[in-house]
Amino acid sequence: MQENKSHARLLAFPSDSQIETFANSRRRRFAYYFASLFVGICLFAVPLKALLAMSISSELYDYIPLMFALCGYLLIKERKEVFENPDWSFGYGLPVLVLSLAAAAAGLNYRDVLKPEDYLCVMSFSFWLYLMGTFLLFFGPAAFAKAIFPLFMLLFTVPLPAWLLDNAVELLREGSYFSAGWIFHTLGMVPLEHGFSFTFPEISIEVAKECSGIHSCTALVIMALLCGRYFLRSGVNKFLLAICAALIATFKNGVRIAALTLAAIYIDPNILETAWHRNGGIIIFGLGVGWLALVLLAMRKVEKRKLHQPASVASK
């Protein structure tokens, strides 16, 4: 009887040697993983350097280095859950790695045909696939599923292809124009509208492509995804919060256009040439963040009400 109990204890509590072996295997796994990341960075060094240069020179993609840091921080923050039971997965990891290298080879082969931004899109997406493949290879699909949010947030490091960027800018431009026009009509002002222009007796303005607000829209969507991840339970609500962020970004851009127009009419016609026009968007962006926070609070209240509703019904 005592022998059976001692045998059960041996089964329940691993020995020091087993713990040491497990720890060493984890260290080796992470060492191999970081070595593979280093190899990937070396393989994609040229497009990564171009990506970094674009993020420095382009206001649209200045958040890309921050996204790499943010996703790394999220993985470190959730490491205990993500890397609880890592497992090798050649069946999932190797096909993704092969796809990554094939996409990179295609990008290099058609580099002369592609536009520079399209080439960078292909190579950045190939590097993203490489990151996914190495993660699957060294940690397995279970860990990948737990780390799905930070890994897929890395897609924001991939620049949009030219045709998709043009369509997104045009869509946001139309939404901003419609929002500004709605504000003017609500205030009792009836400007002449032609294309993307508003013509008043005092002034005529055009909603240019640079006024589409795509940069602030991207920032609000990223913020909404992060807030949905950590403050909401329902997947539907998380999706709706991201949609609301895009709509808020469009409307607040219309507010900015209307505010600048009214300021040009009633305060100073030259305000459109001042820093208020170029750099005043941060104030309106803060307004958009406030609206997004209100939507988030409303969704949290609805979720809490639904969470407590079954308990109250059961108590009755």
Q: What distinguishing features does this structure have?
A:
three-stranded antiparallel beta sheet, 13 helices, 2 domains, mainly alpha
In short:
The chain is mainly α. The protein has 13 helices and three strands; from the N terminus they run αααααααααβββαααα.
How would you characterize this protein structure?
With about 325 residues, this protein is mostly helical. The protein has 2 domains: about 1-155, no CATH class; about 165-310, no CATH class. It has helices at about 1-10, 15-45, 45-55, 65-75, 80, 90-110, 115-145, 150-155, 160-185, 215-230, 235-265, 275-280, 280-315; strands at about 190-195, 195-200, 205. The protein has a 3-stranded antiparallel beta sheet, with no helix packed on it. A hairpin with a 2-residue loop joins β1 and β2. Mean pLDDT is about 85; it is low at about 10-15 and about 310-315.
